[in-house]
Amino acid sequence: MTAHDYWVLSPAIAMALLALVTVSVDLVTRSMAKVSTVAFLGLSAPLILTLNLWFGWFGDPATAREATGVADLGSALFGTVETDRFALFFDFLLLTVTAGTILASAKYIASERMKDYGGEFVSLVLLSVTGMIVLVSATELITIYVALELTALPVVALAAIHRSKQGVESGTKFFVLSAISSAILLYGFAYIYGFTGSTNLAVIMERLTVLPNDAGVPFGSYAVLLAVIMIVAGFGFKMAVVPWQMWVPDVYQGAPTPVVAFLSVASKAAAFAVIMRIMYVAFGDPALMQDWSGLFAILAAVTMTLGNTLALSQSNIKRLLGYSTIAQAGYILVGVASVPANQVGATFAGAGPQGVMYYLAGYAFTNLAVFFAVIAITSRTNDDSIEGLNGLLKRSPLLAGVLVFGLLSLLGMPPTVGFMAKVVVFGSAINANLTWLAVVGVVNTVIAAYYYLRVIRAIVFEDAEDETKFSADKPVLVAAGVAAIGAGVFGLAPFLLLEFAEQALSILPAIVTGL
């Protein structure tokens, strides 16, 4: 490895080292408070290194400058990793989610149940994020696969870490289905390698444009068609997309709530980032775009409809949020399907991908606010049923306010970020000649109102059996409050995230060339 490689990979290296430091602190002190503090403060190192890569403050003086004066990082490790602005956008998002998760988990890992595994819990989270940072930067199929496994395996252990019957069942289901999805993904990679003779995404794109195509066959070849289907299926598991969503409700109900909060946001963001990179870099030809746009449009419609429909009958808040996560994946897929090749009269060709990135960031703040509030509530009540939320407004007004606000953002009520995110992705769908998909999304938003408002009714209007008042522990309350504030600020000022996302997309030629 060269100095440039270390510089480009510095955030991932810092995150891996932080995981080792966390384990060492746990071994030496056995103090969960110190473990949480070291992990939380230690995140400043990868954050500073990520900011350095974005702004080019120091290091790698040989790096060229763009017209904007920002470093053009180039690739590392023989072209297998590209720490460009697209990857850095998701690095910032992942670091934010990780900080919130560690803060909200402070009380949980210090509990009697977790006293022997608190250090392992935090280090596994950090190792999983290390894999995600590499995953969103990977530009080569083997690197993508290895990073994906580094991302998934710690989550398996996290799901079963408290060793309850439900936890072990959740971990086992996640492990088995994750292994199957990884095998399918690997077969897809093998097919595309066999057809093009390369595992590099950019080279795959070059060869697909010159290899002979069969007229009338999607993607110009049945081999490429099969490869794309397998690749989408493999990542569909991580994105919780129908029909690969069957693990979500059981894992969400059985796994520790902090793990579920982390999994619902970080894993989804990383999966969407890598599928966007693969599709736009390896399959970014306009003709190919139109083919996979239709595939994602169908998946979006089915996913949001099934997720919202199955959520209607849920009585457990974590299972309900699991089906909500599936529905939200469908909404995000609307932006993925809105490819530049289909857009008409667009001033910015990347409106669809930009909407995806804005939605993912807004969804992160929203979902974390909801899950952190649920963590605080269930730690006091030991009840994760919807009925257990009855009368919450009287028992804990602050937590009730955060939870209601988060649910309204998931529903898409103004002025939350959830509302603006839906406006952006549905608008990009209309602009990409997918008006029918935007209509399906609006109808599904109306369906979702039933189960979100049902929970809000329980919180605000129903009477609780036990009216004892309680408050949240400070760390989780701070985490939930910051997440809720983020969901509000980025809803009132969406341009903050939209401009950030547009700058990140400036490094993807397939998007900005005005296809």
UniProtKB/TrEMBL annotation:
InterPro entries found in the cross-reference section: NADH-Q_OxRdtase_suN/2, NADH_UbQ_OxRdtase, ND/Mrp_TM
Topology class, membrane: Multi-pass membrane protein
Pfam families: Proton_antipo_M (PF00361)
Enzyme Commission number: 7.1.1.-
UniProt GO molecular function: NADH dehydrogenase (quinone) (non-electrogenic) activity; NADH dehydrogenase (ubiquinone) activity; quinone binding
Compartment annotation: Cell membrane; Endomembrane system; Membrane
Protein name in UniProt: NADH-quinone oxidoreductase subunit N
Lineage of the organism: Bacteria, Bacillati, Chloroflexota, Dehalococcoidia, SAR202 cluster
